[in-house]
Amino acid sequence: MKKGLLILSSLFVFLLLGPIIVIADIAPGDGVETQGIVSTTSISCVGTVTKDDVISWRASNEFLDANLDLYPNIPGEPYYDPNLPFLAENWIKSDEPPLKYPGEIQMVSVYTETTEAKNGYTEYSKTMNVDTAGKKIGLSNVQTHRNVQFTGIPESEGRITSSEEHVIDLVGLNVMKATNILCPFSEPFEIPTCTPPFCSIVRAGSDIDMTTVSFVSDASSRTVSEGDNFQNTPVPGIADVPVNLHYDISATGLSPGSYAEGRVLAYMDVHSQEGSSDCALPNVAAELVYNEQSVADGRVNAFNKIMDYTSGILRI
Known about the structure:
With 316 residues, the chain is an all-beta fold. It has one helix at residues 177-180; strands at 5-16, 36-60, 66-72, 89-95, 105-131, 142-152, 159-172, 175-176, 194-195, 198-222, 243-252, 260-275, 284-300, 302-311. The strands form 3 sheets. Strands 1, 2, 5, 6, 7, 10, 11, 12, 13 and 14 form a 10-stranded antiparallel beta sheet that branches.
C-alpha cells in the first residue's frame, strides 16, 4: 500500500536582547457586560455542502480606536470649556494609535472556517461556543469542534476542501504589578513595579483537499480574564490567568485499516515580543519566533497534530 508523503517544516528563534521578566501576555478584563453565542450544525447530504464561519472579536481595558483623557475644567487651560462648570470633568478624545499610556491592553481574536464538499456523501457536525466573559484556568472564550466524513463520487470528481484558522493578537503597554497580580508572592511593590509592554500574534489552523476522509478538529482560546475596565486609570484583567490558544486535527480513512486520500496540512506561527522589565523603557528585550507546518499528501493512513500556545506571568 502506498503511504502518504509527510513533510515537516519548523523554525524556532529565541533572542534575548536585555534584562527581562518573562515573555508574557496579559488579557484585558471582561467589564460589566458580556455576550454568549452557541451554534450547533448537523448535516447529512449527498451532493454539495458548504459551511462558512467567521468570528472577529476585539477588546480593550480602555477604549478601541480612541484615547480619552480627563482634564479639570479650568480657565486658561488648553481644553477649557466655558459651557462647563469650574473643575467639572472634561473628557478629551484623541485618535489611536498609540495606545493610552500607561497600561492599555488590547486583544483581537479571529476564527474562520470555509468548507465545501462537492459531488459526494457528506456527514458534517460542528459545535461552536463563544463567551466574552472572563475565564479561569482550563476554560475558553472561543471553542469549536468539528467531525466530518466525506466520500467523493469518482465519476463526478467528488472532493472536499476545508480551511480552518484561529488567530489571537495581544498588545499592551507597561502595567503596574499592584493592579493586575493576585498572587501575594509576586512581590508587586519591589522595583521595578511594572510588567513590561508586550506584542504577540499567534495563528494555528489546517487545510484539507481530499476525495475520501474522516477528520476531527478542535480550536479554542482564552483571551479575556475577569477584571473591571473603563476606569480613569485603565486596569487590565488578572495576569495570573495566562492567555492560551489550542488547535488539533486528526485525519484518517473512513473505517479501520482504510486510508484517506488527498492532502492535509496543519500549521502554527508565533511571533512574540517583550519589553524591558524597567517601567520607563519601551525597548524590545526579548523576541520569540516559531513557525511550524506538517503536510501529508497521498494515501494517508493517519494524520494527527496537536498544538498549544500559552503565555502569562504565571503558567499552569
